[in-house]
Amino acid sequence: MNVILLCHYFAPEPGAPSARLFEISREWAKHGHAVKVVTCFPNHPTGVVPPRYRGRLQVVDDLGDIRVYRNWTYVTSNEGVLKKTIGHLSFMATSVLLSLFRTGPADVVVVSSPTFFSIFSGYVFSRIKRAPLVLEIRDLWPAAIIELGVLRNRALIYVLEALELWAYRAANHVVVVTEAFKENLVSRGIAAEKVTVITNGVDLERYSPGPKSEAVGEMLDCRGKSLVLYIGALGMSQGLESVIGAAERLKGRGDVVFALVGEGAEKARLQRLAAELGLAGVRFLPAQPKERMPDFYRTADVCLVPLRNVALFKGFIPSKMFEIMACGRPIVASLAGEAAHILDRSGGAVVVPPEDSAAIAGAILGLVEDRVARNRLGAAGAAFVARHYDRAKLALEYERLLALAGRGAGEQSVDWGSRP
To answer: Of these four, 30, 152, 202, 393, which has the most CB atoms within 10 Å of its CB?
Structure first.
């Protein structure tokens, strides 16, 4: 079958969105389906476009059996709401203008949001190609930026929420990543049978337990010390000031190193805060290539999964927690809600209240001083994700949903062929 996927973020860019979409589409291609991805030139999170794409409107890449149509967009680093919005709007335009007629026929169109404006591109693709539209929601937008206080204009909020509901109704089916997201949509009038939860997961071929990396230990100058690691966006949603607070509480421990790896709007402020507090044991590294993530996780003694203490975030499930557990490392999670319930059930984490630096520090110290507990949590987490969050199994579930959406749309007969 011909599957067209529209998404703002895609491999080789780091981060949960590109990992989810690349790994799922790779599985579809393995099953014999023609997968075409419409996306931007790689630039996230730094806003730097690799030389081979500069000065061009479109470049077509092949990532294995996946054909990728990369289009020019306005690019910026992962900070500044206005600039990022302009970038998202430019993708909405160029994805249609440059890729609509080059991508050929489709049996189903999948569009992943955020970014919000790509939904309208997906709608145009589905109408012109006479194919059902499956809308994937990885974040409740604009609710997230409203909760964070970024958006306060009531008139604009009303318009964006109206467009959001229109998008849910216009799609043939909606895929969400948490049960809380589904409950939110259903409470707002979207039929429950139209919404399916397909959670984030982990590529178990890439992420697995293994020895510490000497190269990573040297890079972080943490050999002979306990490494407490955070990898991901350094933005408003993560509440990383509480991690700096935990590092301050453990400042007297010369045998503990904190490493924050990634980019984001809050990075410069966090660096200044760590410097002002004299935290010589806190390291900041740029975002690292996806292929290096398992080595980083395996080198850590404790991995952190924080979120802000915001009501909406109780429905969020950070995908990094599955990758960490798959690598057999214990987690200190400072969050609440659905993710906390999963981690409690996994046996692979110590869960503390969000943005509680004292509790974070206490949980870290307990694990640093107890190798047996670290090993127990690591083994439990690895077994748990292998049972419940294998990305290959989730991709097959997603594939079956696309087949049902295609048949339900009635546009054409859909025969997905045999499946493994």
So the answer is: 202
